[in-house]
Design goal:
about 240 residues; alpha/beta; about 15% strand; globular; binds fructose -6-phosphate
Length: about 240
C-alpha cells in the first residue's frame, strides 16, 4: 500500500483525478469503478476540467459505481446515479449504456445484486476502483464485520452511516435503511485501488486501516492485502498516523 499525504483535500482529489486520467490515457477502453459522497468531488471536478480541455475521451470507457440506496429511484435527487450524472457523467462524453449503478428500485434487490456482479465479470474486470472511507472504516457500504469474501449484496446500514448520510436528506428518518453495495470481494478483484480520505473526522478510521492488523471490524484495512493500492490523504485525515 502506497500512502501519500497532501496539504489539502483539493490536492488529494486532483492527485486521484491524475491517476484516473492516466488510466484512461493508457487504456481508452478501461473499466472504472466510482464512489459517491463528498470525498471524490474535487477529483470529479478535475476529471471534468481535463475532459473539457480535450485531454480525456470517455467514449469507450465503462463504469460501475460501488453502491446505491434500496428504494430510491434513479431520478431521485439523492440517488447515487443522480449524483454521478450531475457531478461527472453529464459533463463527459461517456455513453449512457456504459454507466452502471445498481437499480435501487429493482423488484428483487438480491437478484439485482447478482446481475450487477455478473455484469462486472462480463467485462475484463475493473481496472481502477476509486474508494472513499467511512468514519467507521466502511468501504462501499460494507460495514464493520462484513466478510471479506462478499460480492455485490444488500446491506443494512449502521446507525453511524445513517447519521453520516443524514446531511443529504431533509431529516434523518428519510435516509434509506438499506443499500446495494459491491462486496469486499468485488472491490478486491479490481486491478488497482485508489482511495481518497480527507478530513479530521476520518483520522481514527485511517489509523485503524493503516496501522492495525487487517481486521473485518475495519473493512478498509483489507486494502493492506491488495497488491496495487494508493491511499491519498489530506493532512487532517493523516493526523493520527503520527502515533502508528
Ligand atoms: C460511496 C461509498 C462510501 C463513501 C464513504 C465516505 O459510494 O461507497 O463508502 O465513500 O461513506 O463518504 P464521504 O465521502 O461522503 O465522507
Amino acid at each position: 500500500m502506497h500512502i501519500q499525504v497532501f496539504d489539502n483535500e483539493l490536492q488529494a482529489g486532483q492527485a486521484a483525478a491524475t491517476l484516473i486520467a492516466a488510466q484512461i490515457l493508457n487504456n481508452p477502453e478501461s473499466v472504472l469503478g466510482f464512489a459517491t459522497g463528498s470525498t471524490p468531488l474535487p477529483a470529479y471536478q478535475e476529471l471534468v476540467r481535463l475532459t473539457q480541455n480535450g485531454i480525456l475521451d470517455w467514449s469507450r470507457i465503462t463504469t460501475f459505481n460501488l453502491d446505491e440506496y434500496v428504494g430510491i429511484p434513479a431520478d431521485h435527487e439523492q440517488s447515487y446515479r443522480a449524483f454521478m450524472m450531475k457531478n461527472l457523467f453529464d459533463k463527459v462524453n461517456i455513453k449512457p449504456e456504459a454507466v452502471h449503478v445498481p437499480n435501487g428500485v429493482a423488484e428483487d434487490p438480491e437478484e439485482e445484486c447478482l446481475a450487477y456482479e455478473r455484469a462486472i465479470r462480463q467485462t475484463c474486470g475493473i481496472d481502477l476502483q476509486l474508494l472513499g472511507l467511512g468514519r467507521n472504516g466502511h468501504i462501499g457500504f460494507n460495514e464493520p464485520d462484513t466478510a471479506f469474501t462478499t460480492l455485490t449484496h444488500v446491506v443494512d446500514l449502521t446507525d453511524d452511516t445513517i447519521d453520516a448520510n443524514a446531511r443529504f436528506f431533509e431529516k434523518s428518518s428519510d435516509v434509506p435503511r438499506q443499500a446495494m453495495s459491491m462486496g469486499i470481494g468485488t472491490i478486491m478483484q479490481a486491478k488497482k485501488i485508489v482511495m481518497i480520505v480527507t478530513g479530521a473526522s476520518k483520522a481514527r478510521a485511517v489509523r485503524s486501516m493503516v496501522c492495525n492488523p487487517v481486521d473485518p471490524n475495519c473493512p478498509g484495512s483489507v486494502i493492506q492485502l491488495h497488491a496495487n493500492t494508493v491511499v491519498l490523504l489530506d493532512r487532517p485525515a493523516a493526523t493520527a498516523l503520527n502515533y502508528c
